[in-house]
Write a structure and sequence with these properties.
Organism: Corallococcus aberystwythensis
Strand order of the largest sheet: 1-2-4-5-3-6
Number of helices: 6
Pfam family, one: RraB
Strand content: 25-35%
Order of helices and strands: EEEHEEHEHHEHEEHE
Largest sheet: 6 strands, antiparallel
Shape: elongated
Protein name: DUF695 domain-containing protein
Number of strands: 10
Number of domains: 2
CATH topology of the largest domain: Aldehyde Oxidoreductase, domain 3
Oligomer: single chain
Amino acid sequence: MSAPSSSKPWNEAFEDYFRWSTTGPQTVGIDLGASPHAPMASHPVLWRLTLPLKNPMSNGLRDSDEKDAVFAVQDALAACLRPLGLLMVGHLVEQGAQVVYLYGPKSVSVEQVLPLVQAHQGAYDVGVARTRDARWTAYLRTLFPAPLQYQVRLNRQRVALLRTEGDLLEVPRDVAHRAHFPWERQAEVAEAWLRDQGFEGFERQPVAVSGMLMWRLDFHRVDTVDEARVDEVSEEILGILESHEGTYDGWGCLLVTELP
């Protein structure tokens, strides 16, 4: 997907979260607004700007006293590099450093970027690394939340909308779900597992997704849609789908404003 090199073709939606990795604790900030556009064919190059923290905590994360200074430099770097077409998609903090992630056109060189970084790095000695990442693996895998963590976020948005519209969340109703699989056999096996969990009404069909042939699986079950229950159901479904290379595309239901 192409776009003007110096502007984001999406509305920014930055969110922060905490996680544990094999190397220790991490805090991640990600622009989730970029996800429908990833990867962008016009921006196949990943830039990583590393800011060594001045006074990291003992676990390697950023101290609250340094937060403003670090983000001031990060914002300055993002602003000065945007005219070159470098678009910031997030940052990751671990092991005493904050690493800023940007994607840009392949025509931009280190010789163009380095002087701008040095002019806007302030008190930080910022490291600059340029690598090809046409599939946006760093964004989609390194920065992106785990499937359940991301789905819980979407659940909160959906439940909040239902509540605003006066929905009686504790009233059971038919809740529809959708998943996609790269192969029909995987969809068939996942369907059998889902059926054992009480889901029904399965419909399976081939569809084009981002230019690729996928197998869509629709199914439903009667449940309530309060926060605790939808999170529990999401975990149940994802536990099955991830074992069969499936992706979960969420749930939907009719609005219920009166007791049956």
